[in-house]
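Pair request: fold both.
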Amino acid sequence: MRGVVLAFLAAAGCAAEARPAASRLELRVRRAIAAHAPEARPSVWLAGGDGRELLAIDADRPVPGASTLKVLILVEAHAQAIEGTFRFSDSVVLLEEDVVGGTGSLGRERPGSAWTYAQLARKMIAESDNTASNLLVRRLGMGRINARARALGLGVTRLERFFMDFAARREGRENWTTAREMGRLLGAILRREILTPEACDAMIRALEATSRGRIAAGVPRNVPVGHKSGSLPGGRHDVGWVRLPGRPYLLCIFLENVLERPGGDRDGGVEAIEAAAQAVYEELGPSDE
């Protein structure tokens, strides 16, 4: 674990090194966000696949992470599986009181049905299923998940409540992260630096099996994109990587203070993320020159 922490600290140190001028890219990203969600407060971190920072906009501001924290839950599940205290093949019975709202299909399944933790993990990432996520948090332990984050050098990222527990949110409990910390965690997975290479490969497959959109906007479908989005009232987020051949990059975008529109209307927050992500791809991707 000491080596892992040192690797994280080394990645963080990239922020202090001289980096390529990002003024044009930053201007494009800010303009793209403002064009679709002018009221939003952005937090953005962009880095090469090696962790070298390319752009930071308020990247260390703590933000309610919403479903982006499901990446940390996935890491903890694999960590405990390696330690032998958790098995993906074990199952849990779905009870009516387990079901919560929001995204995911598990809530439409029959109470009393049994589900393996492997199935729950797939639903947590592919569908952002909140019921599946809460069942995993309960089994893994919120305290152990947060201890893993601290051991990995993540000083802000933590869970304080279950998903869709808005009563806890009103009491001031929140699930926190920063754009930089989430980017560092995803980068460590992509570079296969944490846990085992096999565990990282499994997490890469899971994150690249999600639907396209948000930071995948404008990226050709033959370019793999692994990401995890999140939404809260007033918040729209997406974090992940684009495996551009020879030039992979990490991109984390958190938008707060997004104006909520009536149901059925366009989602300016999602459109802002997609516009910013497309600008990044156009700047970093292939050129005709």
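--- second member of the pair ---
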Amino acid sequence: MAKVKVKLKTHKGAAKRFKLTSGGKIVRGHAFSRHILTSKKSKRKRQLDKNTLVSPQDAPHIKMMLPYGR
């Protein structure tokens, strides 16, 4: 009888927050850009609107939560 490999489950919270690039890097959005925007400078709000890469130290943990390259 052959052993069956168990399917890994995607962490749905991580799947909603992170995307993988074709090169395998992880992209994330910025925090602090949802409300109370009147007290923030326009430059800061523009910069928060752009996506950025996850730090290399955090990447392995996130890749474990996204086993199928979501």
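Observation on the second member. The chain has one domain: 15-65.
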